[in-house]
Amino acid sequence: xGILEAKNISLSINGNKILDNLDIDFWEGYVHAIVGPNGVxxxxxxxxxxxxxxxxxxxxxxxxxxxxxxxxxxxERAKSGxxxxxxxxxxxxxxxxEKFIKAGxxxxxxxxxxxxxxxxxxxxxxxxxxxxxxxxxxGERKKVELASILAxxxxxxxxxxxxxxxxxxxxxxxxxxxxxxxxxxxxxxxITHSLEVLKQSEHAFLLCCGTVxxxxxxxxxxxxxxxxxxxxxxxxxxxxNGVKL
Amino acid sequence: MSIDxxxxxANIHSAVHDKNTARLVINKDKVVDTNTxxxxxxxxxxxxxxxxxxxxxxxxxxxxxxxxxxxxxxxxKAIQKIVINIDIGENSKIDIFSHCVFPNAVDVKxxxxxxxxxxxxxxxxxxxxxxxxEEGGITVIPKAKIILxxxxxxxxxxxxxxxxxxxxDIDYETTCKDNSVMEMTAKIDGKxxxxxxxxxxGNLIGKWSRGVLTSKVAVRDNARAEIYNKLxxxxxxxxxxxxxxxxxxxxxxxxxxxxxxxxxxxxHVTHEASIxxxxxxxxxxxxxxxxxxxxxxxxxxxxxxx
Lengths: 245, 306
Description:
The complex is a heterodimer of chains A (245) and B (306).
Chain A: E1 4-13, E2 16-26, E3 31-35, H1 42-50, E4 59-64, E5 67-68, H2 74-79, E6 82-85, H3 97-104, H4 110-119, H5 124-127, H6 138-150, E7 156-160, H7 168-183, E8 187-192, H8 195-198, E9 203-208, E10 211-216, H9 218-229
Parallel strand pairs in A: 3-8, 3-9, 6-7, 7-8
Antiparallel strand pairs in A: 1-2, 1-4, 4-5, 9-10
Helix pairs in contact in A: 3-6, 4-6, 6-7
Chain B: H1 2-10, H2 13-16, E1 23-27, E2 30-35, E3 40-47, E4 50-57, E5 67-72, E6 77-88, E7 93-102, E8 107-118, E9 123-132, E10 138-148, E11 153-162, E12 167-176, E13 181-190, E14 195-204, E15 210-219, E16 224-233, E17 239-248, E18 253-262, E19 268-276, H3 280-287, H4 293-305
Parallel strand pairs in B: 1-5, 4-6, 5-7, 6-8, 7-9, 8-10, 9-11, 10-12, 11-13, 12-14, 13-15, 14-16, 15-17, 16-18, 17-19
Antiparallel strand pairs in B: 1-2, 3-4
Helix pairs in contact in B: 3-4
C-alpha cells in the first residue's frame, strides 16, 4: 500500500471523460513520474489529488495513509502534507518573493527563505524584495514557486511540468530541488512529458486515455513512451487502433 | 500628549528631532510643531476649524530629506480644514510625506483643498498616508488641482495604512504641459460599511506629456467603492494609461468608470479595469501551501495594495 492511493477515479469535464476508472498509488519517499502525451489526464489527476476547485466532483476515492481525503478541500489537504506546483504559476501583484515563500513555511525566518531560494539557484539579495508578478519571467516564477514548496517541508509534492519555461542552465537547479525534497523524505510526483524530467524519477506511470496504461521501471516506461507514445498518431484514442488498456 | 500621539502614530519621531528635516505638525486647527530648511518657505495661518498653509520652494533648490506634513486630529469629534497652496520653483525637487492621522476618530471630518504648481523641470512627489481609527467614524474629503509646467514631474500616492476608511471622497485633477509626467496612485482597503469615492483626472495638454492614473481598491463586508478615472489627451504625442483594479469580498460592491478621451490623432491613451473576487488560481496556490481561505485572501489583498 502506498502513502497515497487514487482508486477508480473517473472525472468528466464539460461532457468529456478526462479520467477513466484510474487506479494509481505512490510509495512513500520515492520520486514518481506520471508521463504521457498532452491530453491524457496527467494535470487533471494532479488537480484531483490536490483537491482544486472544479476537480472535486469525481467518482472513486483518494486515500492518504489509508484514510479518505475525498471530502477535504485544498487547504485541508495541504494541512495533511500535500502540496503542488502549477505548470504555469500564478502571478501575485505586489506580493514579494519573501512574503510568498514565508506564507506557508513553518519556519518563517529569513534564513529559511534565503536557503530555499539558494536551493533553486536564485540569489536571495536579488529576488527577496521583488514581487511575484509579471516582472518575473515564467521560469523565475517557476523557481520561486519551487522555493516556496521547499520552505514548507511537505510530505507529498506534485510538480506539474517542472521544466516548462525553464532554461537549460536552470534545469539542474530544478533537479537539485527534487533531490532536496527526496532527501527530506518527501514523496515527489512529477507530471511530465519530458524525458529529461522522467530520468529524475525512480518509478513511473504511463497514462493514456485517462487511465494508467503501464507502470514500473523508469527505463522501461521511457522506452515504451519513446517508441510507442511519441510517434502515436491516435493520441488519447487507443480504441481506434485496437490498443487494449 | 496629543502631539506625542500624532508623532508616534505617524512614525515620524526621527524626523521631528532632525534640524535638517522640514516638517509641519498640525493637530485639528493648531500648528504644534514646524521646521524648515534652506530654500523652503512654510507660512501658516490658523483659520476657523483649520489651517491655511502656503509652501513655496525656491527655484534651483533640491530638498535632500523628505518633508513631513502631519495633519492630525486626536479628538474624537472634530472638523479639520486644510487649505494648502504649494509652489515648486523651476529646476527644484521635493518629496513630501503627508501623514493624516485620526487615531481616535468617532465623528471627524477632514477636508483638504489644495492647489499645487510644479515649475519647469521641477520634480514633486506627495505620498499621503492615512491612519484612521477602527471606528469608521471619519469622513475624508481631499481635493487638489495640480499644474505641471514644462518638463515637470509629479508622483502622488494615496494610501490607508491602518484603520477603517469611513468615508473617503478623493478629487484630484492634474494638468500636464509639454513633456511633463504625472503618476497618480490610490490604494485603499474598505471594510464594514466604508464608502470610497475616487475621482482622478489628468489633462494631457502638452506635447509629449505623459500620465498614468492607478487605483487599487479592495471592498469587503458591505463596503462600497466608486472609481472615476478620466484621462484626456489633446496634444501631439501625449501618452496616457488608466489602470483600475478592484477586489470584492463578501457583500462589497464596486464600480469603475474609466474615461479616456483623445482629441489629437497623434496622442494615445489606454485603459484597463478589472473588478471581481480574488483570482482563483492565486487563492488555490496559497491554500495549497496551507493557508486558510481567509488568510490567503488577506495576503493577496495586502500584496495588491502594497
